[in-house]
Amino acid sequence: MDADQAFLTAATHKRENHMMLEGKTALVTGIGPGMGRDISLGLAKEGADVVLVARSEKVVPGVLEEIEALGRRAFAVYGNIAKAEDCLRIAQEAEAAVAQLDSGRTGIDILINSAFHGGEHVKFEDADLQRWRRPVDINYFGTLQLTQAMLPLLKTASARTGDARIVMINTMSVHDLEAKAGSYAGSKAALGAVTKTLAIELGEYGIRVNAVHPGYIWGDSVKIYFEWQAEERGGGATWQEIYDERAAETALGYLPHSSEIAGAVVFFASPLASCVTGTALPVNSGHWMPPSA
User: Is 143 a member of any domain?
Assistant: First the structure.
């Protein structure tokens, strides 16, 4: 092997073993068996240590074990982002978790706002609008409360490295509107607008703010929803028929799994997106596409 070949082999080996988020700490809200778990694992696979935030201990211990099996550190923090006092405590516990890592690391490099409330599936004219406040309290105000509480840690990390990242998990429902989805879509549409505002305001601190907008995310919860739709339709309809109809509406002919959505989140969190901010990325197999410029 000549010198040029040896150099190329060494360089390729280095790239293959390089993890884009080595030495970074991420905080992910809404840890459940689907999106929250898969995002956390995706970040850990790229080298990040992860603070897992959830309201209960139902899923978190298993995700902790999975992350630690990858050779990364993971920490559990429990709280409700709809409560301002919980958000402040979550930030404090996250700071304490970072202090347990290597001595040179400070702040939180990556904030993933994944916690959400699905709202009510009801027509506006039949709705109890008091019940519409719940998705707004979580999807909009809760997300903003937690983000505001985390800002000092994000600023600290950005001052150290020149880059911190916030990723909002939004939804295709703010673009591809459906009847009976007003409580959910309305709360997420408000979040979509303020995401761009945060990108403008926080850019001076080196904090990037982006959003991913999934459509249907294939998994157990969507299967249960399709089973309910099939039952409502009657006539021996099956969940597979509902799935096939929805999949046929996409350009790629299938509904992506939450692990695939996680890839887009990792992209925004990584140096590959170092100049990207204020972007809303559809991640839906081409189910909905933004208008041409």
Answer: yes
